[in-house]
Amino acid sequence: MAHVPKQLVTKKNEAEMRVELVNGSAIQLIGSDNIDSIVGTNPVGVVFSEYALQDPRAWDYLRPILRENDGWAIFDYTPRGKNHGYTLYQMAKDNPEWFAEILTVDDTQALPLSAIEAERRDGMSEELIEQEYYCSFEGVQVGAYYGKQIKQAEDEGRITTVRYEEGIGVETWWDLGVSDSTAIWFTQTIGREVRVIDYLEASGEGLPFYAKALQSKPYIYSSHNAPHDIQVRELGSGRSRVETAFSLGIAFKTVPNISLEDGIEASRTFLNRCWFDKTRCERGLDALASYHKDYDDKLKTFRSHPKHDWSSHAADAFRYLAVGHRQAKIKQDGPKIEFVSYSKDEVSAAWMG
Question: What global pTM score does this model have?
Answer without folding.
Answer: 0.70
